[in-house]
Amino acid sequence: MTSFQCPECGSIKIKSQLYVSTIPDPDDPWSSVLQQLECGGCNSYIPAHLGERWNNISYEDAKKEWIKIYKRK
Asked: Taking the chain, what is the end-to-end CA distance rounded to the nearest angstrom?
């Protein structure tokens, strides 16, 4: 398994893992997220590609994308 680090709080603990199916919606970035990880530190749902930093993105870049695109306000 790939290592996890929450872009919200920095925790490395995963509480749960979700696989979802959605209807594509160009106005909702979450509609394309099919795998989510629930952080064991802050209970935020994090897109797996950010929490596990797929394609070798840095933690800093994952955090920026989390805040700019996915974090619910």
From this structure: 30
